[in-house]
Design a protein that fits this description.
about 50 residues, alpha+beta, two-stranded antiparallel sheet, 2 helices
Amino acid sequence: MKQALAAATAQAAGDGVFGVPTFRVDGDDELFWGADRVDALLRRLRGNGID
């Protein structure tokens, strides 16, 4: 279990994750991290731009 956690943590760090929760839309490298960014993520998923 500890090895799996260490591997997942290393993968997340390699992907640029440094806060939780973190979301990435498929096909897009932009990360949305933190509960305060969920609204921005939802706008992006609806096809709208982010201001």
